[in-house]
Amino acid sequence: MAFFRFVHLFAFVFWYGTLLYFTLVQAPLLFKNLPREIFGLVQSKLFPTYYLISYICGTLLVITYHFLHPRGWTSADCAKMTALYLMLLFSLGQGFWIGPQVAKLRVERQAAEEAKDKPKMEALGREFGKAHGISSLLNLLVIVAGMVYFFYLVRDFKPVTSILKDLF
To answer: Could you tell me the residue ranges of all domains in the chain?
Structure first.
């Protein structure tokens, strides 16, 4: 069980840390310091890895949670699982649904800008803004669900000494 606890905690810390760093540090810093076209290109290269981390860690969290809590779920267990499932669901929505739309619209908008097609550029800009807004909302929902899970995780956290006792 100690192995599953380690994998579970590592997966959450890695995923949530990546999520917060990407959202609150990396993206705003690059947006502020790079030309828009370069920023979009860099983000388009980072997002596949970002989403892959979400899929792998989210799946590990759900699986290890079931191993660690095989039966007799409490209301807190239900809240934790709901938070984990929502994190994974919203991440899947970002990566498979809205993320590809945002990437496609970014490329189309850039092509319209290069062609100096102002009406198309404005229309694509509006579409991009809507899609990006949905993506940002999903990302925010992942962060909030992660906070809920983190609250319950810390509340139920065992001291390091009891974890070490289980290992040795």
So the answer is: 2-167
